[in-house]
Amino acid sequence: MLLGAGHRYLRMDDASLLHGAAGWMNDSALSHLNARGEVHMVEVGDRVATERKATAEGYIRLRPEVLQLVLEGRAPKGDVLAVARVAAIQAAKRTWELVPLCHPIALTGLEVAIAPAPDDHGLRLEASARTVGPTGVEMEALTAVQVGLLTLYDMLKSADPSMTIEGVRLLRKHGGRHGDWQHPTLDGRSDE
Description:
By secondary structure, the chain is α+β, with helices and mostly antiparallel strands. Helix content is 26%, strand content 29%.
């Protein structure tokens, strides 16, 4: 297999090269690589369907006067928060079309909350995706956050092109073979 690196190509015939000298990659860490180091879609047909939930968050930083327009419902393009919520929901349902190795998932629910950031310098978007199935919904929650934030940017860019999207991360997940997980910075807190 050849991997492109600018105008040079690296030959990756030996799968051990993918594991690197530092040993930071292994088979369980990169399940989307087969034994030959080739990309493949993970088989989930033999997994038990369980309840799964994932919650992600992200922020969009914007000027205080633009934030005030949004919170008062006076943004030039209308109710930008409602449109961003719908965009986030739509994106979560189509994650498998956007991220090449994601499985199509029948979501059983998706909640999107948008509120002022704790420091009052922007908005915080949180998305929680749920399903009952053989694979998790982390990518759906993260995609919902990203597209919701991009929608806010799109609808407000004429008022503040300097907006910054940041801090997109998975907060927690529930269910599956690896059990529950929570971002280390949450210090045992849970919103569930």
